[in-house]
Amino acid sequence: MESNKIKISIIGSTGYVGAELVRGFVGHPYAEIIHLTSQSFAGKKFSDVYPVFRGVCDITLEEGDYVKIAQDSDLVITALPHGVSSKTVPVLLENGARVIDHSGDFRYKNLATYEKSYKLDHPHPELLGEAVYGLPEFYREELKTARLVANPGCYPTCSLIALAPFLTQGLIKTDSIIINAVSGVSGAGRKSDLAYAFCETDEAFKPYGAVGHRHTTEIAEQCGFLSAKAVEAGKATEADVVKAVTFTPHLAPFKRGMLASIYVRPSGVFEGVTSEKVNEVYQEFYSNETFVRVLENKVLPDVKSVYGSNYIDVNGMYDPETDMIKLFSAQDNLGKGAALQAIQAANVMFGLPEDTGLGSVIRGV
Amino acid sequence: MESNKIKISIIGSTGYVGAELVRGFVGHPYAEIIHLTSQSFAGKKFSDVYPVFRGVCDITLEEGDYVKIAQDSDLVITALPHGVSSKTVPVLLENGARVIDHSGDFRYKNLATYEKSYKLDHPHPELLGEAVYGLPEFYREELKTARLVANPGCYPTCSLIALAPFLTQGLIKTDSIIINAVSGVSGAGRKSDLAYAFCETDEAFKPYGAVGHRHTTEIAEQCGFLSAKAVEAGKATEADVVKAVTFTPHLAPFKRGMLASIYVRPSGVFEGVTSEKVNEVYQEFYSNETFVRVLENKVLPDVKSVYGSNYIDVNGMYDPETDMIKLFSAQDNLGKGAALQAIQAANVMFGLPEDTGLGSVIRGV
Amino acid sequence: MESNKIKISIIGSTGYVGAELVRGFVGHPYAEIIHLTSQSFAGKKFSDVYPVFRGVCDITLEEGDYVKIAQDSDLVITALPHGVSSKTVPVLLENGARVIDHSGDFRYKNLATYEKSYKLDHPHPELLGEAVYGLPEFYREELKTARLVANPGCYPTCSLIALAPFLTQGLIKTDSIIINAVSGVSGAGRKSDLAYAFCETDEAFKPYGAVGHRHTTEIAEQCGFLSAKAVEAGKATEADVVKAVTFTPHLAPFKRGMLASIYVRPSGVFEGVTSEKVNEVYQEFYSNETFVRVLENKVLPDVKSVYGSNYIDVNGMYDPETDMIKLFSAQDNLGKGAALQAIQAANVMFGLPEDTGLGSVIRGV
Amino acid sequence: MESNKIKISIIGSTGYVGAELVRGFVGHPYAEIIHLTSQSFAGKKFSDVYPVFRGVCDITLEEGDYVKIAQDSDLVITALPHGVSSKTVPVLLENGARVIDHSGDFRYKNLATYEKSYKLDHPHPELLGEAVYGLPEFYREELKTARLVANPGCYPTCSLIALAPFLTQGLIKTDSIIINAVSGVSGAGRKSDLAYAFCETDEAFKPYGAVGHRHTTEIAEQCGFLSAKAVEAGKATEADVVKAVTFTPHLAPFKRGMLASIYVRPSGVFEGVTSEKVNEVYQEFYSNETFVRVLENKVLPDVKSVYGSNYIDVNGMYDPETDMIKLFSAQDNLGKGAALQAIQAANVMFGLPEDTGLGSVIRGV
User: pLDDT tens, A141-167?
Assistant: First the structure.
């Protein structure tokens, strides 16, 4: 082990998010993986579970002594179910590790919203205030010193990156934000479930969780924070702060990828709205962001173009017939939507250039 | 040839719609195919172009003498590009055939809307009034005696079947109808085009034609007619007649299938709206329809379940958090969205039970 | 119920083979389904398990009283695991039903081979002699009066149809028959198994069971019978009777379909072997068969062309550089490889034209 | 530009092989791309053609001044059609560049075999002797100083890596080497061709070029060289030197990946052959190779596990029933089968560790 590298451990490393974290970190020049845990596969090598990693990551999986793991590591990343993370993360923090958590347990500032959305009591609500929502594009400063980072949900990342330039500048009406989103099958996780069997999923396409999907409230809370900035800037009123959004996820027959198609209307602040101006808003807002690629005018995002990467592609158009703005964003649900965004956040946390280990991670054909 | 069968000819039979027409008619007990035409493959057997049809349909493709074809046939079905149909169909009609046309050329009642949408002058606008829009669920009576049927577009069929119960009864606000729709790749037709190559399309997902897709105005015109029925019934006012809709198509990596996800708000007429009531509206409206399957409460449509068939599955939900009704419909874009719907219409035109030859045409796994 | 129809019951109807049997029989003009059983889903409607069948087959699934089922039915089709069939089928026979069984339990004439291949003792070896191997192309006469039919395995059907013309006429050497075969994922059955999850199977391709797959001995036994005909005809000697074959199955990322690529060498009997002559052998041998489509010279079989049908496409080529004959056959593993072949056999058993209900069952695009 | 990096130019950079070369080199720490050429897209940015590369490689494509390109570059990689390479490569060499060529034009030592296989006269047969066959595992020493490297074909790489340990040690009979191979669709290149359209290719699987595919002779020539080593070592006789092989390629519905299933028989030299011993032969032969992963006994290669990487996975089994050895190898046809193998060769040519830039290039899920 080289002492100048960031010591990383991953709790719950054999799900698809865990595997993508491993893929990201084995190519990271300033990080080394110390511990990988798995309840199901403890004792096996990581590459026994994912043969693609043979010779790339042959670390033996541990059941996991969280105290020791926390003490050994600079950063522990948890890819655990909600309700489990809320109990595990505090142990890790107490023992000195910084933590990035992938569950919904620390993503909310409003405890009641969390408890209603997840139908759980939170055992450590005192951590909600401290936890930083791990979207580097919005919370970069807070991440630098964060002890606990709540990695955003995949749908929220995709939705919020698309909406932020318009919400923060009061350019859209906030009473009707409609997000129609599509995810690849890996979003359902790695499990033996007939619903995700090849013969059941190939050539299928359907909505699910059409009312009350948990990510709805996560998106709405963050949209609330973003729209509050427009109020601060005098471009909107308190009444314009987002309270709820319409969100519908769909399952599509590809392994990785996510597309959000968003329908909003321009507010009075958006003068002379055209497709070109919608594009300009994006260009300006994200001009310094490495991982948000604003496509040139009228080229629309495609999940194919972000596969395997930490990029999120965005663009939008205005339809004068119906006075509707359509916003589109595409990301890899395991990449920018989960594991690679966590690596981006880790880079910020440890003072590295944000694209370290992530700059050329793309898939070609 | 058996004289008691309906004599069918298909103009432009080697595209995907043409092939699906052939598939449908070879299993039809009261129809026989007389002529198949193809500009590109004249002289070859149909089964040379589509080897799956070897032994099933080995008819030799003709370049096509439209006068003779019309005289020989009871029904001619044209699967030609728009702008070509408008010149070919009149010749067929003049020579005594009844015609079902698959292009956009005869779908509109408003000439100006057609000419603006298709950027073409119409050579035979006098036929627009006569042409019957080939959705049997709405125009069954007119189809019985129709000389010219304009088979609806795939996106319009999917959208209109989902919206009709609500529009005709004034149950939804008509100023913001948002249709987010997804099509399989066969919708782009059978052609050598890199954009639809396997390596470019598999694991891709993207919006296209996000503003100004032609089906937008076709949907809007028919929504206008449907909403006018609510005015007639005293459940809405003239101001509620639909003038425009928001429509965004997307391309998904499966061969056949189409899903529409529609966002509308209940009007004051829809008292006590709930998900259950949305479902009841569907159940009542389509209780006598064979091919519209209203799913049981909270089961949502999936393109997998309609693959290869003339069925369209519908359901909807109401989200009280945002006062939004979400409607969903799934069909096979080549089935109910094109060729099999034409066979359904042909059955009506020739006085046959509407499901003749279509009742058990499904794909299992 | 119409009394002039064949009364069919299916035991184990909710697996993929069962569902394909239902799909086939609902479109069959002279058969009606009486009972469908399912251990897992008894009490539900068949269309609850397979929503694609809504309105097409809404029969309620029964746990199954085999005595009553046998008494009610003209034909019972069992789609049960091996080891279960061998106990269930005798009960059905005793109670007067004719039976088509899909397991391996009644496919062998040699008890020892069965018991070694399946690692099971057979509780009713007395039935092995009576059971007719359900390949209509080889055992048509025997099927007409058969009480018990053992529906062939999918790989054996594909391999034997390709090899039969050459084996029966002594045209190939029998000491080295190499069968490299590929199956779609539905061959693994309908089950919650991570190995067949979409994310694990899409874009995967691999051999499995490379030594000792059960179908190896089933193929070999039938090849023995076919090659014995060449001995009878004086075109080969006892030493040429096939005792073993080399067989390797592979799993490919498509739902349905199977391709066999077979490598054999011409014997001395095959004078002046060329690709053209290989094709002629097929043309002659299968000239009266509806479901074996011999492709024109040098067009090679493709699983796409047989999808959803009972067809099997064959062709072959001769490579003079290496004195090797390559034979290829493509079928749908659930169609000619399982359920639709059973319907073909049922048609023979009940004196119907062999293609009744099967003639136009194809998928187009 | 950093002067201590290897200056790379790619001729024909917008095909799939070209794009994979770009993907590989943008992540390579000691190489920089100087020129990219394209006949079709000159003047556009590389990322206009492949949007996935936005921000990763935005180099402007040139039509190509080969003299200047050669003078500017340390290494020029050509991804041109055969017959074009044979004219272009000499110009590049004359102007001082080292060259790796992807076509078949410089892969053969025997001119007659090339000219027969490619049906072309070779304009520069004098280069055939000099050209090094770019399989680092066999020609590592020659590559170090090579001026011209002929990158092997995808099928030959997959076949030869699997066969080499057995051929060089005389362990198998050489009169009947049967290679049944399967490729993903990207092997057909990037082009507008209906045969490779999504709707034509998805769920299809078929053999092609079943007799006389060009790679057959390329494999045979190299097998000849490998088997000659067994003669040198006294383990075989001149008669055992391979002259021809049986090879059949198939097209499978996945974008990238290749699997070879090879059937051979043990020679008298292979004492006590078992599956375990077959595995041991691999383990020993490839113990020092980074990119050849010998799977543990009885785990078989899967194209999924090598996707996007330069790895090739191998294993084999022995079937005592038929005295047959089955060998299996899986690689990415664009990776180890083309572009990434070229980067491996480039690393050897320029004295870098062989896995530079390639070590962790894998795809996870």
Answer: 999 999 999 999 999 999 999 999 999
Phi, psi of C35 (to 5 degrees): -130, 140
Predicted-complex ipTM score: 0.96
> pLDDT tier at D2 (50, 70, 90 boundaries)?
very low
pLDDT digits (tens, 9 = 90+) for C295-337: 987 899 999 999 999 999 999 999 999 999 999 999 999 999 9
Nearest to B178 by CA among A206, A273, A176: A176
CA nearest neighbour of B259 among B332, B203, B201, B319: B332
Look at residues B326, B319, B225 and name the one whose alpha carbon lies nearest to residue B282: B326
State the Cα–Cα distance between residues D176 and D271, nearest whole angstrom: 19
* Rounded Cα gap, residues A351 and A353, in angstroms: 7
Q: Where are the alpha helices (DSSP H) in A73-197?
A: 85-94, 111-118, 136-144, 154-168
| Helix (H) or strand (E) segment spanning residue C293 | strand C292-294
Q: Could you tell me which chain D residue has the CA closest to the CA of C206?
A: D302
Chains that touch D (3 or more CB pairs under 8 A): A, B, C
Is A302 in Cβ contact with B204 (below 8 Å)? Answer: yes
Residue B194 has its nearest CB partner, among D192, D199, D202, at: D192
Query: Identity (one letter) of the amino acid at D358?
Result: L
- Residues A49 and A58: their CA atoms lie apart, in Å, by 10
Q: What is the enclosing helix (H) or strand (E) of A69?
A: helix A66-72
Using CA atoms, how far apart are residues A10 and A33, in angstroms rounded to an integer?
A: 8
DSSP-derived 3-state class of residue A75: strand
Which residue type sits at B233? A
Locate the chain A residue with the closest alpha carbon to D333.
A365
A151-170 burial code (b ≥16 CB/10 A, e <16): bbbbbbbbbbbbbbbbbbbb
**Ramachandran region of residue A50, left (φ > 0), alpha (ψ -120 to 50) or beta?**
beta
Q: Which chains pack against A, by 3+ Cβ pairs within 8 A?
A: B, C, D
Interchain CB distance below 8 Å, C199 and A192: no
Nearest alpha-carbon partner for A89 in A75, A356, B276: A75
CA distance C15 to C333: 14
CA distance A23 to chain D (A): 6
C257 φ/ψ sector (left φ>0, alpha ψ -120 to 50, else beta):
left
Give a three-class secondary structure readout of chain B. CCCCCEEEEEECCCCHHHHHHHHHHHCCCCEEEEEEECCCCCCCEHHHHCHHHCCCCCCECECCCHHHHHHHCCEEEECCCCCCHHHHHHHHHHCCCEEEECCCCCCCCCHHHHHHHHCCCCCCHHHCCCCEECCHHHHHHHHHCCCEEECCCHHHHHHHHHHHHHHHCCCECCCCCEEEEEECHHHHCCCCCHHHEHHHHCCCCEECCCCCCCHHHHHHHHHHHHHHHHHHCCCCCHHHCCCCCEEEEEECCCCCCEEEEEEECECCCCCCCCHHHHHHHHHHHCCCCCCEEECCCCCCCCHHHHCCCCCEEEEEEEECCCCEEEEEEEECCCHHHHHHHHHHHHHHHCCCCCCCCCCCCCCCC
Q: For residue B122, what are its two tokens? A: 């119409």
Domains of chain D, each with CATH number or no CATH: 6-130 (3.40.50.720), 155-333 (3.30.360.10)
CA separation for the pair D133, D127 (Å, rounded): 12
pLDDT digits (tens, 9 = 90+) for A57-72: 999 999 999 999 999 9
**DSSP-assigned letters across all residues of D263-310:** EE-B-TTSTT--HHHHHHHHHHHTTT-SSEEEPPTT----GGGGTTSS
Inform me whether the C-beta atom of residue A320 falls under 8 Å from chain D C-beta atoms.
no
Q: Which of A303, A322, A332 to mutate to test the interface with B (most CBs of B within 10 A)?
A: A322
